[in-house]
Amino acid sequence: MRLVLLAFAFGAAWLQRQASLPHRPGLVLALLAAACVLALLLLRQRHQVLKACAAMACGMALGFYWAAWLAQLALAPQLAPDDEGRDITVVGTVASLPYQFQQGVRFNFAVESAAGAVVPPLIALTWYAGFRDEISYAVGDVQPGERWQLTVRLQRPHGNANPHGFDYEVWLLEQGVRATGYVRPAPRPATPNVRLDSFVPGFSNLVQASRAALRARIVRSLQGKKYAGVIVALVVGDQRAIPQSDWQVFNRTGVSHLISISGLHITMIAGMFALAAGALWRRSFFTDRQLPLLLPAQKVAALAGAVAALLYVLLAGFGVPAQRTLYMLVVVALALWLGRITSITCVLCLALGVVVLIDPWAVLWPGFWLSFGAVATILYATVGRMASHAEFDASRWQKARAAMALGAHTQYVVTVGLVPLTMLLFAQVSLVSPVANALAIPIISLLVTPLSLLGSVLPAPLSEWVLLLAHFLVQLLAQVLDWLGARRFAVWTAPVPPAWSFCWALFGTLWLLAPRGWPQRWAGMLGSIPLLTALPSSPPPGQLWVTAFDVGQGMALLVETHRHRLLYDTGPAYGLDSDGASRVIVPYLRARGIGKLDGLIISHSDIDHAGGAVSLLENVPVGWLSSSLPVGHPAVDFQRQLSRPYMRCVAGQSWTWDGVHFDMLHPLAHAHHDIALKPNARSCTVKITAGKHAILLAGDIEAAQEGQLFMRARESLAADVLLAPHHGSGTSSTQAFLNAVHPSLAIFQVGYRNRYRHPKAQVYQRYGDMGITRLRTDVEGAVVMELGAQLQVRSYRASAVRYWFGK
Question: Strands 646-648 and 622-627, how do they pair?
Fold first, then answer.
């Protein structure tokens, strides 16, 4: 059974690596299931090895085609391309916990009917406040379970595609969301945006409404409190109100797994209810009915614990760690009810199989691997080896010491055992996590979580006092974590390891955590040396690597020589707490093991180029900053506060790194003082030459600046690769300029269906008429170029294609 379940999960994971789905997976799955049953029945019991191999093969094939069949069903509802970007009136219900933010509200919407279009049954909507396109937007007070009539504009699922980046498209697919969009003012008075029903009965709506009511109660009680979002996350699993600055502290200290409804919390709550129910049942609720004679107290306790776990998991939003814990508890409860003795490894494998059966995309997320990996590591390193602790029965003190020793050993096992997996998933490991978790686990799990749950249901004003106490404890803990996370030694970083390095480190970890008596267990530590001491890759001297990120409607390129790295622009700002640097650039640098940048050029002050500047400077040390930013810009002030060099980019500046030459071609010095110029006109324009090839980064210069460059530096413009000026707008890429540059490749950094309609059709065609290869980041994803003796180009969506891309 365990082999079949493990193979089933492996088969589902293998499917998620495919570029396309197999043909007619449902039919193949049915035929395969029948063949597998027949094959296992025909094998005799004495053929154990052959039977095990057949079971694994059957399990893997079933997992592969089961995941393929579910993927085919999930991809079936689609929005027609012709319906993208036009007004559609839909009627349906609010199907998720709405997220209120400063610009509006986000929520999922279950569509019941749509006028004039075929709309997928579940869509994700944002209702913006304020003004857009000279139209006033008033945000409705949407609540879970309400039926609304809305006018929306939709698009097919699309997300930024970058190496080591978050895959938004498959996340939407897993959630069942097949279109995204925003609410528009009604085009006609006859079809207003209006609430039709205050509540539509249904189990899912009831769960989401309950979560919303608990969240609203907590927010009211903790109005203005810094860590109210943490309390909300512990009660209903909604982490969206926790700012990125707090997440950075939690991640650096290794306690982020506690800032949600984790498996530990669910087990604790289930245990409390089980103990209480068992105690009351044994006492017949203090009556003379002799209830244990009707049903054993152990069965009642198991049932109460399972029900409590189910309710808590529903509040959590059914995340993978919560699912894993729920399924394990349910299996144990069933074993008690049926009088069957089952091993803990069987329980874990069964939970694994159920998670993958219900959600085959779960294997794509770090939480899945960390959740099951932590439990598997504890089982490997502790089961059958802690009997000596049970012998401490002479006194309470000895029992307490035994419990503390067991807890310390478990924390050591989890910390050491998950190092290879943590490095593979996050390219870093917290060195202070043992200390941080030793403090955080008892405070969060034993004090804050029960107080938060209790405070969310008690009557006022008692509920407010309890919630304030829980918040006070979180605040004290956060101060300690902030101090720990600020230490220079708090986190060890290295590049994401290759397969051989990860497997070697995993083997070493298993050796290190082997039972006592295993020879030279300390030698297992040597397995992690290649993993932890790896250096980031870099081009040979004289060659150049350029990565044009897919940041949406904005610019950001990483330029790498043998020993130096330069970032050109920092991407757009997506919101008050999110930008291209925090979402795309910083995760990429961390995964590559790049701990600092030698230089940063911000071409100009437009939000799609400088939106991530401050975020980048906060997270990555930058040697020097060059830009055309105005005096007083936050990025300039931040760089100067750190006492790091800042200069304005001026034509004529040049430098050489590792045989690669950099020339600043624009702007002229006086342009920085000309208040009549737009920021675009002062865009820092850089030409980089490596061997026989060159790339020209032109920022947002327009026709006038292109003409100036043509007149004064025509011979310096020639380049093999051109970053299309101003994203291919109609005010740039003149014929004379393109003739002077004469590129063989043009990169258009644009957002999917961006409001500016970049690149303009006539400009894009101009490039095509000249025989220039055109790559768009909204179509190709991130584009990586290698310049030197040859020019080599690859795009992320082509090199890492998956079956859900563009669907």
Answer: parallel
- Give CA separation, 186 vs 156, 189, 194, 204, 327, in Å: 21, 7, 10, 28, 46
Encode pLDDT of 506-559 as tens digits.
999 999 998 888 888 889 999 999 999 999 999 999 999 999 999 999 999 999
* Strand (E) or helix (H) holding 526: none
Cα–Cα nearest to 417, from 373, 382, 356, 364: 373
Q: Select from 84, 86, 63 the least CA-distant residue to 151.
A: 86
Say if strands 721-723 and 693-697 run parallel, antiparallel, or are unpaired: parallel
Distance CA 664, CA 768 (A): 28
Element (H, E) at 656: strand 654-657
Q: Are 707 and 734 in contact (CB under 8 A)?
A: yes
Pairing of strands 428-430, 491-493: antiparallel
Instruction: Determine the Cα–Cα distance for residues 429 and 415; give it in Å rounded to an integer.
Output: 9
User: Which residues make Cβ contacts (< 8 Å) with residue 328, sequence separation at least 6?
Assistant: 347, 348, 350, 351
- Give the separation between CA 109 and CA 151, rounded to whole angstroms: 12
> Measured between alpha carbons, how far is 734 from 722 in angstroms, rounded to an integer?
13
Torsion on CA atoms 223, 225, 230, 235, rounded to nearest 10: -30
Phi/psi of residue 525, nearest 5 degrees: -65, -25
Is the full-model pTM beyond 0.85? yes
Separation CA 546–CA 544 (nearest Å): 7
Q: Which residue has the tokens 């991640």?
A: 251
- 355 Cβ contact list (under 8 Å, min separation 6): 320, 323, 324, 327, 362, 368
Cα separations (Å) of 45 from 36, 37, 49, 326? 16, 14, 10, 34
**Cβ–Cβ < 8 Å for 65, 108:** no
Measured between alpha carbons, how far is 321 from 355 in angstroms, rounded to an integer?
A: 10
- Residue of 323 and 296 predicted with greater confidence: 296
Residue 390 has what pLDDT?
45
Nearest to 386 by CA among 363, 409, 368: 409
For 520, left (φ over 0), alpha (ψ -120 to 50), or beta?
Answer: left
Closest CA to 489 of 440, 429, 529: 429
Residues in the chain: 807
3-state secondary structure of 41: helix
Written as one letter, the residue type at 161 is: A
Helix (H) or strand (E) holding 162: none
- Spell 356-377 as b/e; 16+ CB within 10 A means b: bbebbbbbbbebbbbbbbbbeb
Q: Smallest Cα–Cα separation from 469: which of 455, 487, 488? A: 455
**For residues 132 and 153, what is the distance between their CA atoms, to the nearest angstrom?**
13
- First-to-last C-alpha distance (Å) of the chain: 36
Q: What is the pLDDT of residues 336-348, one digit of tens each?
A: 888 776 678 888 8
Q: Where are the alpha helices (DSSP H) in 362-461?
A: 366-382, 387-390, 396-417, 419-426, 433-440, 449-457
CA atoms of 425 and 472, how far apart (whole Å): 33
Please tell me the predicted confidence (pLDDT) of residue 392: 44
What is the b/e burial string over 407-445, where b = at least 16 CB atoms within 10 angstroms of the residue's CB? eebbbebbbbbbbbbbbbbbbbbbbbbebbbebbbebbb
Q: One-letter amino acid identity for 462?
A: L
| Residues forming beta bridges with residue 663, ordered by sequence position | 654, 687
CB–CB of 688/662 below 8 Å?
A: yes
Q: Is 188 exposed, middle or buried (0-12, 13-18, 19+ CB in 10 A)?
A: exposed
Q: Please check whether residue 396 is in contact with residue 404, taking contact to mean a CB–CB distance below 8 angstroms.
A: no
Task: State the amino acid at position 101 in one-letter form.
Answer: F
The answer to whether 712 touches 665, Cβ cutoff 8 Å, is no
Cα–Cα distance, 201 to 93 (Å, whole number): 10
Give the whole-angstrom CA distance, residue 208 versus residue 202. 10
Q: So what's the pLDDT on residue 793?
A: 98
Helix (H) or strand (E) segment spanning residue 686:
strand 685-690
Angle subtended by helix axes 263-282 and 297-316, to nearest 10? 150
